[in-house]
Design brief:
mainly alpha; rod-shaped
């Protein structure tokens, strides 16, 4: 209806004003979203632009979630072999403790200060 009532110059000016307003809206949404908001392209109304931004943000969020899930899976995969090696360590630690206890008993028995006390017994 606007096309029928207004001359082409006015129509061009109106289209330019709408394009500037859409770009300002896109810039504002980008600032609020804190990330790049794609140009509206086919979006002609603020509602369509908002729907496009919402779809873009949802897609970005899904990518971040998938990336985080992949990191968590990699971390779990790293931990699994480590748990296997930890099961092999307790016998080594037990042997280390036993050897340490024997060494301390031997050192106590052969210590010069204690030899005189043990010899006096």
């Amino acid at each position: 209806m606007f096309e029928l009532c207004h001359p082409p110059e006015e129509q061009a000016q109106q289209a330019e004003e709408e394009a500037v307003a859409q770009e300002a809206l896109r810039a504002m949404m980008q600032e609020l979203a804190g990330q790049h908001v794609p140009s509206s392209g086919a979006a002609t109304s603020p509602e369509e632009m908002m729907a496009a931004v919402r779809a873009h943000m949802t897609k970005e969020e899904e990518k971040r979630y998938a990336k985080g899930e992949a990191k968590r899976e990699a971390k779990r995969a790293k931990k699994a072999p480590k748990a296997h090696s930890e099961q092999a360590q307790p016998p080594q630690q037990d042997a280390h403790r036993t050897l340490r206890a024997i060494f301390r008993q031997l050192a106590s028995a052969l210590h010069p200060a204690l030899l005189s006390v043990n010899g006096a017994r």
